[in-house]
Specification:
2 domains; elongated; 55% helix; 106 residues; 3-stranded mixed sheet; 3 strands; YefM-like fold
């Protein structure tokens, strides 16, 4: 799936022609913080304008994904994950309450 195709599925994305940018100001942008503007000229994408909060959310999601990728690339981390899933399947697990009780008794 092409990157530009992803934008077609988000109902908060509004396609805006370059000529409409003159109408934007801080007040109008603050009125619709969830809206993302897909700026285009003659149906050619030029830029994307989104709220700072949405930018931070995307950045956090990206960081979480790269962290997961880094973890999966590490042989030690990957083996630990596989072992954890094997423990789950085999029923070698304890509840958090059991672990906390054990720690209190130490």
């Amino acid at each position: 799936m092409a990157a530009s195709a992803l934008f077609n599925y988000d109902p908060n994305i509004k396609h805006v022609g370059v000529s409409k940018l003159r109408d934007l100001n801080a007040t109008k942008l603050k009125e619709r913080p969830e809206e993302t503007l897909f700026i285009q000229e003659n149906d050619r994408p030029l830029a994307v304008l989104l709220s700072y909060q949405r930018f931070l959310e995307i950045k956090d999601e990206f960081n979480a994904l790269t962290g997961m990728i880094e973890m999966l690339v590490s042989d030690t981390e990957r083996k630990s994950l596989v072992q954890a899933f094997e423990d789950l399947r085999a029923g070698r697990v304890r509840s958090l309450a059991e672990i906390e009780a054990e720690l209190e008794n130490e």
